[in-house]
Amino acid sequence: MSEAADRAGVVRRLPLADRLSRLAPVLLVPVLVLVGLAAISSTSSWLTLTVSGLAMGMMIFIMASGLTLVFGLMDVINFGHGAFISVGAFVGVSLLMALGEMTGAPSLALNLVALFLAVLAAMAATAVMGWAFERVIVRPVYGAHLKQILVTVGGLIVVEQLIAVIWGPEEIYLTRPEMLKGAVTFAGAALERYRLVAVAVGLVLFLAMRWVLRRTRIGLIVRAGVEDGEMVQALGYRLRLVFVVVFVAGSALAGLGGVMWGLYQEVVTAGMGEEMMILVFIVVIIGGLGSVEGCFIGALLVGLMQNYVAFLEPKLALMSNIGLLVVILMWRPQGMMPVVKAK
Amino acid sequence: MIVHLLAGDRPRSAALALILTAILVSLAFAPFLFPGTRSLETAARICIFIVLVASYDLLLGYTGIVSFAHTMFFGLGAYGVALGCEHIGRSFPALGAGALAGAFAAVALALVIGLFSLRVRAIFFAMITLAVASAFAVLVSQFSGLTGGEDGLNYSIPRALTPALTIVEGELFGTRLNGKLLNYYLVFFSALILFLLLLRIVNSPFGSVLKAIRENDFRAEAVGYRVVRYRIAATCISAAAASLAGSLFAIWLRYVGPDTVLSFEIMLDILLMVVIGGMGTMYGAVIGATLFVLAQNYLQTLMSGASEATAGLFLLPDLLNSDRWLLWLGVLFILSVYFFPDGVVGRLRRSR
């Protein structure tokens, strides 16, 4: 036997408890779903609620992912993120209404093309806006949390008011594209088509984001930047540029989330971004600031919780999410999967 | 004597001292100097907002914490008085009990929020207060059986505080001597006492610790102060003061509703008043609140005039519409945070 063999490390499996505690946040989602099943006696309404909860969670995730990455990367907290949600919704919905012939036609292809164009327009608009927002509002207040919060709130108000100037102060009602209306019946439960589409889109986006972050060079730099920005800069990467790219991408995603949310609710208002920000913040905090996976799980939990509780006791829906936040913070004060160390 | 009352915190600028005296004198004799219902309303509003803004400044300016739940505490005090009057009856004990219950609830809620969010990082606090405050506003409008929902509550306050009571027949400088006048002085003196109390708190050793935390929390912790406890204590004190201001508002208006005490717009007003006046100076609250309430009352009229004058031009009438008041507030807010971060008071003190 050679000496080297003696020195070779032994890779032992972690004890079961450790592995479980690492997996615990992921396991929370099925646990919540099962609790929901126990609380809601009827299986068919449980299935309907679960699908709509997942759909809502996916949309919240799309809106929140940019925020959490921006925070992780540059320690910038953007209270104006909701503005992108509203603007995205208004741009997308305006285009959808302009393309009324395509959305009204009973052809899936035409509907999807219209939807795709609307989403593209919304994302382009919010990306440009994100770039401008970063330049004008965020850049002068780097490193000062207090001023960041104040200034970005100011930015949110200004954008909301500008929406009211451009599109008028009233809410806009809309109808979904023809082929996305209605529901399919599965196991006795009515599942709205649109919600299934939303779940699919959210899932694809999450997997794509994970792939970009884990398998590409830019993802590597972003993750390293979240972990230790100074070191990445010392190695010669221009983290500022990466940050702007992430900020713009996050804004575009918020715009996409806005369009999807508008179609989900079938109404858009200038204040919708501000309302969604509340759920987005809850998600970002319970997920752990800076973590995309945590954000995804947090969003699913919040979406499911909201739908189950709204079915059981409508008045407590928003409170239940605050309860969820409190419970999670008691369990893990930094959120479920914190990436950024507490400062 | 005066310096003692001010807790040794002199204005440190002749111009500032002059302005503050002018505001104090105007508010003290407002019913006689500016007779008329509208100006009395404005004066009472200024008194109440001075306390509200000063209590917010204790958090934002002195401790360096951003909270979005200040209107919630304000609303708790206001609804406390409203519910007290509604359920206990039309008496002074009812007012007192309502105000106390509101203040107690505000402190308890502030304690819980503080425990959960300030423990890890102060930035959680801003997000969590935003969430809790909006959930609270939703709850208030949903439980309409208790709170009157969106319509709010109208209730009657003790007769001694209403125009129904006449102290002396006749007028003094054009103002009738009735219960409304008593009500105004109740608001004025309560506000004055609360303000002086807050001034004392920020100039006490406790206040110095808060400022140390604002400047460098890590160092404050290293020196041996439990930063979390001080932050939570500041949150609770500020919540109590805000809730008492809310009680005064409820007594003065004889009405509470979500739009008047809980809306996000009021939160924004408070933020703007603090920033305009000058963060981290109690006197800033006085100047910010006075300037802002005056502007709010008289500028909106001006805006609708400007909107009509520009009718027919592209976009301008919409931008100047008095419903778009918030747009200009937002712009003003951003500009003042960038270019005017120490506000009117800071500017006056520097140009001494």
Q: In total, how many beta strands of chain A? A: 4
Low-confidence stretches of chain A: none
CATH topology of chain B: ABC transporter involved in vitamin B12 uptake, BtuC
User: Could you say what the CATH topology of chain A is called?
Assistant: ABC transporter involved in vitamin B12 uptake, BtuC
Globally, the shape of chain A reads globular
The most extensive interface, with participating residues per chain, is: A-B, 44 and 42 residues
Helical fraction of chain A: over 70%
Write the layout of secondary structure elements.
The complex is a heterodimer of chains A (343) and B (352).
Chain A: H1 3-7, H2 16-39, H3 43-74, H4 81-98, H5 100-104, H6 108-138, H7 145-167, E1 172-173, E2 183-186, E3 189-192, H8 193-215, H9 217-227, H10 229-234, H11 239-265, E4 267-268, H12 272-287, H13 292-312, H14 317-331
Antiparallel strand pairs in A: 1-4, 2-3
Helix pairs in contact in A: 2-13, 3-8, 3-9, 3-11, 3-12, 3-13, 4-6, 4-7, 4-11, 4-12, 6-11, 8-9, 9-11, 12-13, 12-14, 13-14
Chain B: H1 2-5, H2 14-28, H3 30-33, H4 37-63, H5 70-87, H6 92-117, H7 122-142, H8 144-147, E1 153-154, E2 166-172, E3 175-178, H9 179-202, H10 205-215, H11 217-223, H12 227-253, E4 255-256, H13 258-261, H14 264-277, H15 282-309, H16 316-320, H17 325-339, H18 343-350
Antiparallel strand pairs in B: 1-4, 2-3
Helix pairs in contact in B: 4-9, 4-12, 4-14, 4-15, 5-6, 5-12, 6-7, 6-12, 9-12, 10-11, 10-12, 14-15, 14-17, 14-18, 15-18
Describe this structure in words.
- The complex is a heterodimer of chains A (343) and B (352).
- By secondary structure, chain A is mainly alpha-helical.
- Chain A contains 14 helices and four strands.
- Chain A has helices spanning 3-7, 16-39, 43-74, 81-98, 100-104, 108-138, 145-167, 193-215, 217-227, 229-234, 239-265, 272-287, 292-312, 317-331; strands at 172-173, 183-186, 189-192, 267-268.
- In chain A, the strands form two sheets. Chain A has a two-stranded antiparallel ribbon with strand order 1-4.
- The radius of gyration of chain A is 21 Å and the shape is globular.
- Chain A starts with a helix and ends in a 12-residue tail after the last helix.
- Chain B has helices at residues 2-5, 14-28, 30-33, 37-63, 70-87, 92-117, 122-142, 144-147, 179-202, 205-215, 217-223, 227-253, 258-261, 264-277, 282-309, 316-320, 325-339, 343-350, and strands at 153-154, 166-172, 175-178, 255-256.
- In chain B, α14 (264-277) runs parallel beside α18 (343-350).
- The longest helix of chain B is centred in the C-terminal third of the chain and has 28 residues, at 282-309.
- Chain B is globular.
- Chains A and B meet through α7, α12 and α14 of A and α7, α14 and α17 of B.
